[in-house]
Amino acid sequence: MSHALTPLPRRAAALAPVSPAVAVMVLLALPVTPGGAEPADVVSGLMVVYCVIRLLRDRRRPLTPAAAMVLGLPVVGLTLAAMGASSPTAGLTGLGRYLQVFVLVPAAVLLLIRDRADFEVLAWSFVGLALWQGAIGVHQYVTRTGASYQGADIRAVGTFGAQDVMGMASAVSLGLVCATGIALSRTSVRRRAMAAVCALALLPPLAVSFSRGAWIATAVTCAVQLVLTGLRRALRVAAAVAAAGVILVGGFGVGTALLQQRIDSIAQVTDAPDQSVVDRYTLWASATGMWRQHPLTGVGLKGFPEYRDGHATLALSSGAEIAGAGVTYRRQALLSPHNMYLLVLSEQGLIGLLTLAGGWLALLVRGLRRHHRDRGPGGDCALVACGLLIWLLTDFMYGDIGGPSTVLTGMCLGLAAWWALTGEKQVDALPRAGVRQRVEEALAR
Question: What is the pLDDT of residues 210-230, one digit of tens each?
Answer without folding.
Answer: 888 899 999 999 999 988 887
